[in-house]
Amino acid sequence: MTFQVPQSQNHVADLLPAYINRTLDGPTSERVHAHLLHCEACQSELSSWVAVRDAAQLAAAVTPLPSANVLNAVWAKIDASPRQVSIGQWFLKHVLHLWLVFRRQGQLVYKSIWIGSALVILGGCGLVLFSMLQLHNHSRDAEAALALIATVTSAAGVAFIYGRDNDAGLEITLSTPTSIRIVMFCRLLLVLGYDFALSALASIVVAVAHGGSLWEIFQMWLGPMLLLSSITLTLSLLIGSWFAIMAALVLEALQDLPLYVERHAPLLQFANPGMWQTSPTVLFLAVLLIIFAVFYAPRQPRLSN
Amino acid sequence: MDKPTDDRQLLKRIAGGDRQALSELYTCYQRLLFNYLLQLTPDYGLAEELLQDTLVAIWKSASSFGGRSSVQTWLIGVARRQAHNTLRQRKISLVNESEVEELAAVGPEPEDFTLASTARDELVEAFKQLGPVHREVLVLILVQELSYEETAAALNVPVGTVKSRLSNAKRLLRALLVTREGAGR
Questions:
Q1: Cα B98 to the chain's mean position, in Å?
Q2: What sign has the CA pseudo-torsion A276, A278, A279, A283?
Q3: Is any Cβ of chain B less than 8 angstroms from the Cβ of A74?
């Protein structure tokens, strides 16, 4: 004869497995024990659970042991798995990865950026020297001209470093584990670094020929170069490369106009040319725009779709 | 000597890279772990592979043992995770679909039938026919003698699920035995 245990809180059916393996706490175990003394349904249920336990233990008892070479296989797997790396190794690994990504970008941006920048900046440097030596132009005009050339050249190059129209392999780049932000930032560093090196070389030549302060020449183009490049980068992502270049030219003209006016019409000083030089504000704005561009970069291809 | 404290010391030594400690832990728990894994797969070779992966995982993650559960519960939890990951990758289900249907069709227990009155061998055979999900909970509670809370922690399910799986396992055993008895008549 068997009994169905009613679904009632007074019965203890759901506690019986824990009762027979003695994992109930003292008071609960005593409550179950007291209930079992007068409940035939739960007594029958307990008998069933004891039978199931005996069967499960018997089945477990005849379970074979694993083979003797398990541990050897485990040591082989542990020795074959990559070891835990220290923070230094982790850092070195990531720096090396960044360096590899950085190096590869040189082949992926337009070759004309490298050739064009070198021709314009070094050619411009030659023209500036010529105007100083042959035409006896004012040295400040020559330096301003060099700054204009360096700034516009760099901004024009940066406008073409990223985007579906400028990178035939963008889809492949997007499918790699390397973040597109890192890729774009490496390209920016590469192009800006290249233009910086060219402009620095031109500045040294001008400073040597003219005998002026090298730092003053640097100051004339370093900040504007970074700011105008960051503006063109952002505009090229948001709207397009050619629009970015046009905007850069307009901005540069607006900034250089006061210089011209100051020189040729001193009464019309409607702007301060010192604003368009290397200053904390200019550098801060440039960094801000670069950060925006880097974080915005992954959205750019989707937007253009 | 206090066994649980010993086991915790073993895990600390393993976390420190002591291979001898892993060998000692394996000697203590090989039967328990292998028996548990064999509830999840009847394939002896696969169970042994899962046991190796479990030991590798213990070696790598011993430092993460926080002492909130017993060492035994933690080891079963590690074994379960390894098994589930591997079985999922190989598209081996732990849920027996026919068992689910059978569970829904289980009627009231016949008055002349009790599990207690069933021959032991028949009950063992019926136990072996249960699906992994039900066998594992029976083994953890009735063989390894874990509490409901420890079982719930090892299986990463609520205590209520442990209770319902136990109840379902017993109903299925009865259904299997009734079906067999009916076929034998």
A1: 20
A2: positive
A3: yes
A70 with B163: Cβ contact below 8 A? no
Q: What whole-number distance in Å separates Cα of residue A262 and Cα of residue A220?
A: 16
Is the distance from CB of A285 to CB of A231 less than 8 angstroms? no
Which pTM does this prediction carry?
Answer: 0.53
Q: What residues of B are in contact with residue A28 (Cβ under 8 Å)?
A: none
Do you know the residue count of chain A?
A: 305
* Tokens matching residue A272: 């301060």
Measured between beta carbons, the chain B residues lying within 8 angstroms of A47 are 114-116
CB contact under 8 A, A70 and B48: yes
Which of B47, B128, B147 is facing A23, going by the closest CB pair? B147
Per-residue burial over A46-71, b = 16 or more CB atoms within 10 Å of its CB, e = otherwise: bbbbebbbebbeebbeebeebeeebb
Q: Give the distance between the most distant pair of CA atoms in chain B.
A: 62
pLDDT, mean of residues A135-155: 79
Q: What number is the ipTM of this complex?
A: 0.83
Which residues touch A73 (CB under 8 Å, ≥6 apart)?
A: B52
- Give tens-digit pLDDT for A243-285: 888 888 888 877 766 666 655 554 444 444 445 677 888 888 8
Q: Which residue in the set B26, B111, B126 is minimally distant from A2, CB to CB?
A: B111
**A18 Cβ under 8 Å from any chain B Cβ:** yes
Helices and strands of chain B, counted as H and E runs = 9, 0
Give the C-alpha separation, A238 to A7, whole Å. 67
Nearest chain A alpha carbon to B31? A65
Calculate how close chain A gets to B34, using CA atoms only, in Å. 7
Residue A181 — pLDDT band, cuts 50, 70, 90? confident
> In the Cβ-directed half-sphere of A304, how many Cα atoms lie within 13 Å?
17
